[in-house]
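Dock nicotinamide-adenine-dinucleotide; give full complex structure.
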Amino acid sequence: MTVAVPAPGTFRSWQDAAVALRFPRDAFIDGRSVPSLDGTRRSTVNPATGAVLTEVAECGERDVDLAVQAARRAFADGRWTRRSPRERQAVLVRLADLVLEHADELALLDTLDAGKLIADTTAFDVPGTAAILRWYAELIDKLPDEIAPTAEGELALVRREPLGVVAAVVPWNYPLEMAMWKLAPALVTGNSVVLKPAEESPLSAMRLAELASEAGLPDGVLNVVPGAGPVAGRALGVHPDVDVVTFTGSTPVGALFLRYAGESNLKQVWLECGGKSANLVFADTADLDAAADGVIAGIFTNQGQVCSANSRLLVERSIADALIERVAARASAIVVGDPLDPATTMGPLVSSRHASRVRSYIETGRREASLLLGGGPVPGATSDAFVAPTIFTDVPPAAVIAKEEIFGPVLAVMPFDTEDEAIALANDSVYGLAASIWSDRLSRVHRVAPRLRAGTVSVNTVDAIDVGVPFGGFGQSGFGRDLSVHALDKFTALKTTWIKHQ
Ligand code: NAD
């Protein structure tokens, strides 16, 4: 189904399209949309209004087991995995096309379900999802395997083989795109997948499964089980017939998956977890306006609900006032409002519950540092999921708001005097997902970047990301890498076939 959008780009047209939207309601198991076995459903809510969008099937352990069995059957009989790379490519390219054909519908689902700006879901999330899928699909027939050097009369073939049943457990901040980070490399290499979306944002994943079927993905190869983390998520984590879990979410839940694996079948576990990324601005930055733009994008994009959000601003003391003045001016100009309005630049957080958690960090921050901007209620807010862009200055390095992942629009500013101090502050975190450096001195950039403990260091920009480069962290940000050719390592094992032919 496509959604008719009368005049794309206007608030009114998106509101009309939202009213006409069909919401998927069921799990997707073995090629069919099905309710949960016991009929339980969970309301999924639009955080911008508090209104219930629909009642989604709530999968329990038995539903998860059915999905894993379907995935196992599909893998075992080779209906997907034994197809040639080019045949798999054709199906997945078709799916990428379908994602784009249904772009408005998928963008609306994520906007309504998770409060994400329609300006972002249409410009980034949906096209990005299709682009990631297309990139992996187009890659897969261009990766030869290896022949190892051996003595004459012997031939050692080293091949990449799919692992089997992949469980993908994903968060709500980029519902469709996070799912595709996992699905694309897992499916293209021939695995079967059971995907568990977050409780807050199941709709786009459920719709994606229907589109995958339409694209020709065989039954059982992609299953979607909406449900509670501690129930459906746990059931995947402890299932004896799941070969690998790929998880994106919080660090404490990531730790649980390691435990689940140890208690069950030693399945492989790949974790992409939280972050508290530092943005280092040195006094030799020529363009402070560009740096200020970067600071704003780094912390306020997606309402600050970004794993790699640059939530700590470390600024050299001599330029601190000049930079903070620019940042504050830009933050004051952020338009907080209805995410369906393309003119809005900040929407609600994913839920009232999450917003109240973020507000409690703001209360802690008031006791720890100086509140420069925000912190209070959003005038005219249509629900209690809205949090104003908030900036704290003079944040002590040991403060809670400097240490813990808030996952909201809250920036902690800390001054530094020397390069070594900046590096020490940046690395003073249990996380290590990303960092940014602003400097116009090449020698400084090359000195500082290798010393930052972060999976991605962006220089004179923030959050540099592309399907062609690996994304992932050090420390408690997790391990393994999403995106790029390296993500294929998570979903394949190397197999040697040694042939003695003399
Ligand atoms: P979360 O850990 O609460 O939930 C993530 C997923 O795990 C959801 O599907 C949830 O249902 C499931 N889950 C929750 N409890 C579970 C349990 N006991 N057993 C099994 N599964 C369980 O995270 P969230 O609140 O959805 O997302 C925010 C977090 O995700 C932040 O910490 C953020 O940094 C992180 N994140 C990381 C990346 C990355 O690439 N490193 C990207 C996006 C988000």
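Observed: The CA atoms of residues 295 and 327 lie 7 Å apart.
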